[in-house]
Amino acid sequence: MREEVFEHAGMSLRILLPRAADELLDEEAFEKDERMPYWAELWPSAKALARWLLDQPGFAPGMRVIELGCGVGLPSLTLQSRGVNVLASDYNDDALLFARANAHRNGLGELNTAMLDWRQPRAELGVFDLVLAADVLYEQRNALMLAELLPCIMAPGGRFVLADPGRRHLPHFQEIMQCDGWQEMQLAELPEIQQLSTGLATSRIRVAAYEKAHRR
User: Fold this and answer.
1) What is the pLDDT of residues 125-180, one digit of tens each?
2) Rounded distance between C-alpha atoms, residue 48 and residue 162, angstroms
3) For residue 23, pLDDT beyond 70
4) Whole-number Å distance between alpha carbons of 184 and 210
5) Under DSSP, is residue 10 helix (H, G, I), strand (E, B) or coil?
6) Which of 63, 104, 113, 194 is the most exposed place for a label (fewest CB within 10 A)?
7) Which residues does 101 contact at the CB level (< 8 Å), separation at least 6?
8) What gap in Å lies between CA 67 and CA 113, rounded to an integer?
9) 35 domain-assigned
10) Confidence bin at 47 (pLDDT 50/70/90)
11) Predicted local distance difference test score (pLDDT) of residue 216
C-alpha cells in the first residue's frame, strides 16, 4: 500500500492507495468489459474537483449528491467532511472498499457507497441534486454512457459538475449534451502538479457545470 496526502483550505486527508495500479489488472475482467484499474490512482482531476468543492461557500441542507467513478473517494470525502449527504459510486468493488477505508482512516465515519454500472442504473438509487465526476471521459464509450445516465439519476433542476484534464473525448461529450438540451458553464480552471516517472508535470483541470436548459 502507499499513501498520498491531500491538503487544501485547512483540510488534510491521508489517502490510501494500492501499491501499483498495473498489478491490479484483471485479464478476465478486461476481456469481458475492457475494465482497467484506473481507480487505483489519485488523479489530478480528483484533486482539482476536491479543491473546488472545498472552496464553495456552502451546500443546501438535505442536498443529495452522488460521485460517479469515485475511485479512492477524494471528492466524496471532502463533501462528507462538510456534512453533505454524498453517495460514492464506482464500477469496481475494490475502489469502493478503498473509498470506505479512506473515510475511516480520516475519522469521517461510514461513507455511503454503491456499485454502479452506468448502462444499468438501479431505480432504488433515486435522484440527486448534484452529480460529480472527475476524469471519466478517458474512453469514447464513456461519453455516450454518461450522457444517457445523467437524466436517469438527476433531480429536476439538478446540476452535473465535471472535472476534466482535456481528454480527447470531451468534445464528443459536449456535443451530445448540447444536442440533448444541456447548457454548459465553465466554473474554474485549476492547475494540478503530478509526479511522473520523468519528473513533475502540471495539468490544467477544467471544472464545468451542466444543467438542463429551460424550455419556454
Assistant:
1) 999 999 999 999 999 999 999 999 999 999 999 999 999 999 999 999 999 999 99
2) 10
3) no
4) 5
5) coil
6) 104
7) 16
8) 9
9) no
10) very high
11) 45
d(CA 131, CA 150): 8
* pTM for this model (two decimals): 0.92
All cell numbers assigned to 55: 472552496
Q: What cell does 124 get?
A: 432504488
Cell of 27: 485479464
Q: How confident is the model at residue 34 (pLDDT cuts 50, 70, 90)?
A: low
Q: What range defines the domain where residue 193 resides?
A: 44-212
- Give the chain's domain count: 1
Round to whole Å and give the CA distance between 59 and 165.
25
User: Which residue type is seen at 61?
Assistant: P
Question: What is the spatial order of strands in the sheet that 128-134 belongs to?
Answer: 112-115, 85-90, 64-68, 128-134, 154-164, 199-212, 182-196
Torsions phi, psi for 98 (to 5 deg): -70, -40
- Interval 82-114: pLDDT, tens: 999 999 999 999 999 999 999 999 999 999 999
Q: Give a yes or no: residue 75 inside a domain.
A: yes
* Grid coordinates given for 90: 464506482
* Residues belonging to the chain: 216
